[in-house]
Each structure stands twice: as structure tokens, then as C-alpha cells.
Amino acid sequence: MSLEETATRIRAFEVQFVPSLLQTADYARAHVRLGDPDISDADLDRKVHERMLRQQRLHSGDLKVWAVVDENALRRPIGGRSVMRAQVEHLLLLTERSNLTLQIIPFNAGGHGGISGAFSILRFPEATLPDIVYLEQLTSALYLHEVRELDRYTQLMDRLCLEAAQPKESVKMLAGILR
């Protein structure tokens, strides 16, 4: 979280879920419970609250987020139909923000290089701090900062942005999913 708090730009790719910075509380609750079905209500509430606090920077406008999401993540009803509907409506509202770019990779795009899993690239304001690739796992996370690794993930993100529907088309896709 401290790395995310100091980042000025986050580029995120998700294949299974809506990126955590873009989740509603109900979606986040369902998402966290999927990863830990035995979590206590108190711990679940704490994790959801932390996730919502992390989103404040997005809403304040001092963080730029560029998210690429596989259509699969938007079609799978995490938390049920009503939770997913509210989540897609929330995404539509977020696309109106100037500090957020959202692109969807449609099913008809076929396979893509991001199929191996979600990742985020964090950029920091200080030129002396290198970008970091963040890979979240079930019980831990990896932070990659070697130039070779960072270059591969940056190139992959660039390719995913080219393969995804453009932002305006992605908004139309979200509206279609709601229907």
C-alpha cells in the first residue's frame, strides 16, 4: 500500500477481476471472500475498508490510472447479478474521470499476452525511483524492479492497450453488458 500511495501513475491489467482501485465495496467484499472463504467478518470488513480508502487518491485526482481489463472479468458475476450490475454502473461513472482510462479486451480479440495473469506497473514522481511491477498472489505479492523484467511488462502492457478496445468503445461495451 505504501508504494501505491506514493505512485503518480498506475497501469493495471486484470484478466479475472475488476481492478481493486475500481471496485465497489460489495464487489470487493465478494472478491476478498473468494480468496479466503473462511475470513472472519471483522477481517473482511477491514480489508474492504482499506480497499475503499486506497481509492480516495483516484477520486482526488492526484493519481492517474490506466486499466486494461479482459472482458471475462466483466462477464463473471462476482457477488451475484445485482453486485455485478452495480459494479459495471460504477465503472461507467469512473470512465468520466479525466485521470482514469479504461480499456476492455473483448472476447473476439482472441488470445493475448496477458492471459498469464494480472499485474500493475507503478510509476513514482521521483526520477531516481524506478517503476515497479506488482504481482498479487493469494498469500503474498511480488515486486519486480529489474530493468529487464520491467521492460517486458511495459511492452506487454503497451501491446494489451493496442489489442483492447479504445476507451470510447470500451464505454459502449460496458453499456452493452448492462443491457
From TrEMBL:
Residues of the DUF5753 domain: 2-175
Cited Pfam families: DUF5753
Name of the featured protein: DUF5753 domain-containing protein
Lineage: Bacteria, Bacillati, Actinomycetota, Actinomycetes, Streptosporangiales
